[in-house]
Every structure is written in structure tokens, then in C-alpha cells.
Amino acid sequence: MKVFLDTNIVIDLLAKREPFYKHAAQLFSLADKMKIQLYVSALTFANTNYILLKERKPEEAKSILRKLKLIVNIISLDDKIIGLSLNDTDFRDYEDAIQYYSAIENGIATIITRNLKDFQKSKIPVLTAEQYLQRN
């Protein structure tokens, strides 16, 4: 099953943010066991690097991102995704629109995020990590 991760889930794992770390780690464990396929936007790598650099040295941050790259599939941003995101008035947060259309345009069935309210008009299921794990 293909699952799209919002940036906050990735940061929950890498920064070990409690109380969210446990569920994020379980998702990545499922991917490691090849029970699910995790997808992220290329934007997630840039945003995650920015957050990691607040507490780590640049080479440490890159090392962490290299390991992340082994587990997730990265969706490129393209003209269509950017265009759809810019023109969608249902999203208050432009970054969320980019995440949403990255998933939609790549045929991904579910988005996992901690910000459910930001995806209220989604045409595909949007769940927290905990909700996803309880259902599967």
C-alpha cells in the first residue's frame, strides 16, 4: 500500500518528538518490513533539513537525510503540482496544498499527517499516524 507522509510525520521520527515519535517509528518499521511504501514530497527533504539544522551540524543533517532516502520514495515537484497548489483556494497553507497534490498526482491512496484540519476537503483519506496504525 502506498502512503504519503506529511513533513510533520517525518520530523516526528527524526527529531523524536513526543508523544508522536512512537507512531511515526511504527510507520517506518512497516516500510522497513515492506508492508507499506512510504512517499514524501521533495519539499519534505528541504523542510526537514531546515528543522534538523536548528539542532545539528550540516553533515549530521545530511547523514540523517541519506538514511531517510533509503526508506522513502521521493516525489518530484513539477509544474503541474505547483500550478494545482497555487490555484486551489481550499488550502490556507500553500505547503499543505503542495503535499496534497503531490499525493493525488502520484496515485497515492492515503495521506498521513498530524494536521487533519488542514486537509478537510481532501478527496482521499487523511489520517493521523495513530489512526492509520489502528486501521491496518
What would you say this structure looks like, in words?
The protein is of the alpha/beta class and 136 residues long. It is built from seven helices and five strands. The protein has a single domain (2-135), classed as Rossmann fold. The protein has helices at residues 7-14, 21-32, 42-52, 58-71, 79-87, 94-105, 129-135, and strands at residues 2-5, 37-41, 72-75, 110-112, 126-127. It has a five-stranded parallel sheet. Helix 1 (7-14) packs across helix 2 (21-32), helix 1 (7-14) packs parallel to helix 3 and helix 3 (42-52) runs antiparallel to helix 4 (58-71). The N and C termini lie close together (10 Å).
In brief, what are we looking at here?
The protein is built from seven helices and five strands.
Q: Which sequence of strands runs across the widest sheet? A: 3-2-1-4-5
How far is it from the N-terminal to the C-terminal residue, by CA? 10 Å
Number of DSSP E strands: 5
Oligomer: single chain
The SSE string, one letter per element, is: EHHEHHEHHEEH
Q: Point out poorly predicted stretches.
A: none
Query: Might you state the CATH topology name?
Result: Rossmann fold
* Large-scale geometry: globular
Strand share of the residues? 5-15%
What would the keywords be for this entry?
5-stranded parallel sheet, 5 strands, alpha/beta, 7 helices, 136 residues, globular, Rossmann fold
Layout of secondary structure:
Layout: E1 2-5, H1 7-14, H2 21-32, E2 37-41, H3 42-52, H4 58-71, E3 72-75, H5 79-87, H6 94-105, E4 110-112, E5 126-127, H7 129-135
Parallel strand pairs: 1-2, 1-4, 2-3, 4-5
